[in-house]
Design a protein that fits this description.
single chain; about 300 residues; alpha/beta; Globin-like; 2 domains; 5 strands; about 10% strand; Globin-sensor_dom; STAS_dom_sf
Length: about 300
């Protein structure tokens, strides 16, 4: 057992304030760190053969093979994972460690390494290491279990850091796309003399809704429109604030001498309109664009 257990006195400066709360959440103590460090020599010895076994297993799946361009890339990824797992039992759980793990999660996400692939590699490593440690410590299985349980705490904390980065990166990408969609210009189409169609697509936030109002009123003035069909079929969601802007746009259109028809209402949009006190008598609405155009044409004629 002496080839596995290495003495390691707890360091008082290991836990820094920024990570204290996170470590308490996972119930990771200095005792856990000391136990994990006691596995350092064995983990270092076994990391490479475990990773080699894992990649033999991984590359037997066609879907997984598509993540790698060639053998050189596979070799680089193996070396990266070798360092990663060696650091798991030896690195200080401080701000620098957390920042580094988050950077790795960002690199994985950008490289197309899926959470399934990442967690799968982790599970394979911990499972293999656990069996090997138990085999080597048959004379003291209770001690082996305590070491492995502590390592598992740290491993789950480590995985959480990377997975949070995956989520944060995906959410940032979604927010960026929504921001780009909200900045798209909204076309104002003239269907015929006096009739305008405004198809709104993408994210409709308060900023875009205000710009929409200005755009619609300008086109009503320039084209002397008598009816406007505002179609929001392509809008995913509308909250009460945006619904209020839409009603203001339709009211302003009426003041400019044009009748407004709102089409493409979803159940969510209808509920948002009800929340701000709008009734069916207060505005012209239609479930679909074709019906809305027909209503607008009748209003123009009548």
């Amino acid at each position: 057992m002496s080839d596995i257990i290495a003495s390691s006195a707890p360091r008082a400066d290991r836990l820094r304030p920024a990570t204290d709360e996170q470590l308490r959440w996972f119930d990771i103590t200095e005792t856990d760190r000391s136990r994990a460090e006691a596995l350092a020599a064995t983990a270092d010895e076994l990391a490479e053969p475990i990773i080699e076994d894992f990649y033999r297993h991984l590359l037997s799946f066609e879907g997984a093979r598509r993540h790698f361009r060639d053998d050189d890339q596979i070799a680089r990824v193996k070396q990266g994972q070798l360092r990663y797992f060696r650091e798991l039992v030896a690195a200080a759980l401080d701000d620098e460690y957390v920042a580094n793990r988050r950077r790795i999660g960002l690199i994985h996400e950008r490289a197309g390494v899926t959470p399934t692939l990442y967690v799968g590699a982790y599970a394979y490593y911990l499972h293999s290491l656990g069996h090997m440690v138990m085999d080597r410590m048959q004379d003291d299985p209770a001690r082996a279990v305590s070491l492995l349980l502590s390592l598992n705490k740290i491993a789950h904390f480590d995985m959480a850091l990377a997975l949070e980065t995956y989520v944060d990166t995906r959410e940032a990408a979604i927010e960026q796309r929504e921001r780009e969609m909200s900045e798209l210009p909204t076309p104002v189409l003239q269907l015929r003399d006096g009739l305008l169609l405004i198809p709104v697509v993408g994210t409709l936030d308060s900023f875009r809704a205000r710009n929409l109002t200005v755009r619609v009123l300008e086109r009503i003035r320039d084209l002397r429109a008598r009816a406007v069909v505002l179609d929001i079929t392509g809008v995913a969601a509308v909250d009460s604030a945006v619904a209020s802007h839409l009603i203001q746009t339709m009211t302003a259109a009426r003041l400019m001498g044009a009748t407004a028809v709102l089409t493409g209402l979803s159940a969510e949009v209808a509920q948002a309109l009800v929340k701000i006190g709008v009734t069916s008598e207060a505005l012209h609405t239609a479930g679909d664009l074709q019906h809305g155009i027909e209503i607008a044409e009748r209003l123009m004629e009548g």
